[in-house]
Every structure is written in C-alpha cells, then in structure tokens.
Design a protein that fits this description.
With about 90 residues, the protein is of the alpha+beta class. The chain is about 35% helix and about 15% strand. Strands 1-2 form a two-stranded antiparallel ribbon. Helix 1 packs antiparallel against helix 3. The protein is globular, with a radius of gyration of 13 Å.
Length: about 90
C-alpha cells in the first residue's frame, strides 16, 4: 500500500518557507505536509492514507494564515504526531 503512494503531489519547501513550516509544526505539535494544489495523483493519495490532525479553531486559523503566504497554489495539511493511519485503513 505505502509503495503505491504518489509522492509527486508533495511540495518540497526550502529556505524561509521551510523555516516557517518547522515553526508551525513546533507550534501546533503536529506534522505538517505541503501539497501541490492542482496535482493529479497517479497512485494512492497520502492524504487519504494518514489521519489528519484535530485542530482547535486557533490552530486552524494559524495554519490558514501560513498557507496564505504560499502564493503558488500549495495546500498545507496537518497530521497527527506521531503519524497514524486513517481510520479507513485500520
């Protein structure tokens, strides 16, 4: 199953973006993944494989604020820490 996941959907940040995402991950105590918004997957979807994080409204607002800084159509998703498989896979 994991070998079928299309990792081409991932956006790999660098420099200031990467630092901002590390800071967000530490602040929220969640794993942070950035996806290419308009990518068409050719395999399994990582976002359907991992359990999304439960976020408070304040945490979600913070994530959305950071996401708006990514102006090229990326989507930021928070996952539980440690990572867990989605309920549909367990």
């Amino acid at each position: 199953m994991l070998s079928e996941i299309d990792l081409g959907v991932l956006y790999i940040p660098s420099g200031p973006e990467l630092e901002l995402l590390y800071e967000l991950s530490r602040e929220l105590k969640k794993n942070i993944v950035v996806y290419k918004a308009n990518y068409i997957c050719n395999g399994a979807h990582l976002c359907r494989t991992l359990k999304p994080a439960s976020l408070s409204q304040a945490q979600l607002d913070r994530l959305n604020t950071i996401e708006k800084l990514f102006c090229d159509g990326q989507v930021i998703v928070a996952y539980e820490k440690p990572l867990e498989f989605a309920d549909s896979l367990t």
